Amino acid sequence: PPVLELRDAAKHYPARRNLIGLRHGPGTTAVAGASLTVRPGEFVGIVGESGSGKSTLARLVMGLEAPTAGRILVDGADVTVGDAAARSVRLGALQMVFQDPQSALNPRRSVWRLVTQAMEAARARLGTGTRAGPARPSRAGRRERAATLLAETGLPADLLDRFPAELSGGQKQRVNIARALCLAPRLLVADEIVSGLDVSVQAQILNLLHTLRDELGIGLLLISHDLGVVRYVCSRVVVMRHGEIVEEGPVEAVFRDP
Ligand code: ADP
Ligand code: ADP
């Protein structure tokens, strides 16, 4: 089955209540009936101007918010209702990488502990509802696993004991990606992950995503306002406008249109 499928997924935010508790106005339809399929290892870009619903779509995919209509399937399982079963399906398949690598990283934790922390958090979430989770690895074991994940993202071992403030923007984003790799995801959902970086560093990070696909089969749902970034890394692109998917197809076909 596809790793991700949206069937007419929609998200409507009601208008806010005024002082006497009445809602005024129709609210906002952030995503309006979006249908989308992502196959394993596929790289799909989502473009659209600010406010077109890209980030809301990502939050729906990740289960950070529930859709107001439609269905969401992950690995063929319906995860529309975000219950414990849906969370564990998502946890085994999807990870998100955020825009700002600085704010996502605790400045007081060293690089290897930042990765370990993500592993522990994932372990804790997986253990939810069960009495005996997997046994906690030793400190040396955790450090070694963190080093392996960091090596997969191209970070040299001598950065293991550094702190975020001592890393470049690209290195910080690599740490974030290493954290996302903890649970061996099959699809990374990336929201503007290279927009703050120098162009040459952007290319390094995008090449890393290609390497992860080639070596680990990890797919990508890449939200970006930068058409050049999407063209460089994605084979398929989805164009959003006012919450709707208005165009979808191979990158060359969609970007050829005037
Ligand atoms: P308040 O705290 O007074 O309710 P918010 O800061 O939550 O105000 O929201 C301010 C406005 O921004 C509202 O119109 C709300 O619909 C909108 N809004 C809230 N969250 C977001 C968001 N994540 N992205 C875009 N707009 C948002
Ligand atoms: P994009 O990521 O493409 O910039 P968003 O998904 O952030 O678009 O926003 C789509 C629309 O939904 C915008 O009109 C935005 O103001 C609104 N919106 C987003 N989040 C909220 C929220 N939590 N509450 C109310 N409105 C929101």
TrEMBL record:
**Location of this chain's protein in the cell:** Cell inner membrane
Q: Where is the ABC transporter domain?
A: 4-258
**Family, per entry:** Belongs to the ABC transporter superfamily.
The name on file for this protein is ABC transporter ATP-binding protein
**What organism, scientifically named, is this protein from?**
Acuticoccus mangrovi
Q: Which residues of the full protein are shown?
A: 337 to 594 of 627
